[in-house]
Design brief:
This protein has 18 helices and 21 strands. The protein is α/β, with parallel strands linked by helices. The termini are far apart.
Amino acid sequence: MEEWVGEIWHKYITRKASTDYHDARIEFSQVAKAVGVVYRALGGEAVKRIEAASPRDYAVRRTFLQKIAGENQQISLAWQDEESLRLPETLAVFSTKELNRDLYIWLAVLAAHHQDKFRHWAIDNQALVLSVLTAYPSLQARYDRLAKAFVESRADISKRPKEEQLMEQSIVQAVVNPGSVNAFPVVDYAPQPVYLWLYPSAKVNPNILPEYNETELDEQQKHLATKGKTNRKKAERVEANDEDKGMMIFRLESMFSWSEFSKLDRGEDDSDEDDDENQRVAEDLDKISLSQQQSQKSARIKIDLDLPSPSEDDIPLGEGIRLPEWDYKQQVLVKEHCLLQPMLPKDSIAKKLPQHLQKTAKNIQAQFEQLQTLRYWLKNQSQGEEIDLNAWLDFYVERQIAPTAERGIYQSFRGGNRDLSCLLLADLSMSTDAYVSNDQRVIDVVKDSMLLFGEALNTVGDNFAMYGFSSVKRHHVRMSLIKNFNEKYSDDIRGRIQALRPGFYTRMGAAIRQATKVLQEQGSTQKLMLILTDGKPNDIDHYEGRYGIEDTHQAIIEAKKLGIKPFCITVDQEAEAYLPYLFGQYSFTMLSNPTQLPVCLPQIYHRLTTQ
């Protein structure tokens, strides 16, 4: 009974204290796609994520009812940093859905136009609004509607201190007439939220964050940090408990609320770790407390122990190859930043094509046999079936300028092998050890795909090579040699494919640069690079997030400048968030069912090479 009454009271007092228009509420998820299109179409950085902003502390003066209800302590505002654009989770500040939807679009326009950091929040926002309205005059009517609704939505502060009244008047004037206010009074409380403006980044002060060394993050911490879609949290730094002090307690978290913090130590036991439970707790917490732990030193040892011993590892070929890497913060290509180690799969022996693939292989081979009869035009011939109009026109123009020796102006229709080279680059990171069905892992699907790919290209006679890659930081990028361009496809190659194992992380930029060098050495007219992957670029030394995306993007640009056509095939269901930026809108494909990759890969190659 008490719980029922308490729930009714909470709903009543919360709704009574709220100033939102609940019937006009718009969720960020409803406008996320439209916001993304507007932001990037107007020049916003393509690599930035566009996400909902977690509520943040906002020291605004609250009404009596808001204090009773506990409302307005945290507010979701619009802000951006180098990694992402964050917009309010919901907007119900105006009386109609149309106005709240327009507000989301307006904030996306502001964010796309805003490049520098704020020096003075209110003055800089006025200048930003003016520059946007000058650049896009058609937005003036929309802004006027939003400004009018903004003024009407402001709470009455006639009983507040004079300084706060002056601050409110200044903000209203700055919104209605951008650029008209150059000075703002100093007040004890923040003004009411100005939803028409961007706010400074909500990043936590780095002085309160633990100073972990980049090499001291263990694999489990990286997994928990990237797992799920948890909103960003506030952080505070606390003193760590001494390991030989404190009190041992049982795990009775259910008796505490998630927001409480008890500085009690407990014994560490790997057997009682529950990643899913920890993830759920992190999502519920408003603030996460961090401390410097001496045990972090052991994480570095753990990572080193994860590497196989030389007797169990793949076979290295040579001392490695130095490769550059793109630093997007400095906008410079750092020379010899990575060490790529070519390797041969360990314990590979000559093997036949597995029995379960033989029927599919025959069907694919029958399709590819049609490409053997492909015919083409041979240019610059002294005689032939037709006149080459382009060659004749060049000859005619040159002859008008100066005496010109005769040359072939005919073209002849010939048959023969296709003039192209293809390099297949497969992601062999540790994520390929995940299961996609009851019987198959991602690595099994990749191996079947490479086997069928080899059978198909061997049938048509195209020049091709196959490599795999993974990495453990920049000094250990592993490039598995499966078949180079000079080797004949045989049982030895089939054996290497079947000996492949999941590796480590995905330093894609270095692998693409090495693949580009290999392809560049081929004399073919067409050069195709096919990339198989199940996730985005990442590694454990600052390569995850935007750094890895930008380096891979730069590597793709370098390959395209050399006449190479990169194309990505992925089974990552979230790939649409980053692959258009990396490869271009029409240079990748995403498979919803990973088990279809072995059949789809030869078909995709067939389509790419017969256009």
